[in-house]
Amino acid sequence: MAGHHLSILFLCLQTWPEAAGRHTDVLLVNGILGESVIFPSNIEKSLQVISISWNSKTSVAFINPGDSGTVTPTHKNYYGRINLIGQNYDLVLSNLRMEDAGDYKADINTNTDTITKYYHLQVYRKLWENRAWCLPLLC
């Protein structure tokens, strides 16, 4: 029975594309309160990225790709919680809060045009901690 519950939890915590609301290509991103989540940018390697602007209910961050890529949070709610991962400029939002839940948009400016990607972040509370228990006689 416990395995069944873990399977359901794993399924619920996956990230998958979802057609929803006004945008047909919305990526559903699930996160856990207090932990981190990754917004994958899925930028083709052949594209020359000039800048990336992230927005939600407010402005979130501005990314200047450069050699190592720099990210500048543009709203105080995101100071100290925004980072980049990988050469693909995936956005990492740490220390998730319930108010982080909602719609996000990335405007990816390339040398030829602007690609807009849409995300929907759901933040869940952790229901339990996994702990290993060991009886002294068996350890």
UniProtKB/TrEMBL annotation:
Q: Name one GO biological process term.
A: positive regulation of monocyte chemotactic protein-1 production
State the annotated membrane topology for this chain. Answer: Single-pass type I membrane protein
List cellular component terms (GO).
Answer: external side of plasma membrane
Q: InterPro entries attached here?
A: CD2/SLAM_rcpt (IPR015631), Ig-like_dom_sf (IPR036179), Ig-like_fold (IPR013783)
Signal sequence segment:
1-21
The alphabetized UniProt keywords are: Adaptive immunity, Disulfide bond, Glycoprotein, Immunity, Immunoglobulin domain, Innate immunity, Membrane, Signal, Transmembrane, Transmembrane helix
Q: Which domain of life is it from?
A: Eukaryota
What the entry lists under Gene3D superfamilies is as follows: Immunoglobulins
Provide the protein's localization. Answer: Membrane
Which SUPFAM superfamilies does this entry report, sorted A to Z? Immunoglobulin
Matching entries from PANTHER family are given as: SIGNALING LYMPHOCYTIC ACTIVATION MOLECULE (PTHR12080), SLAM FAMILY MEMBER 5 (PTHR12080:SF103)
Query: What's the protein here called?
Result: Uncharacterized protein
Name its species. Castor canadensis (American beaver)
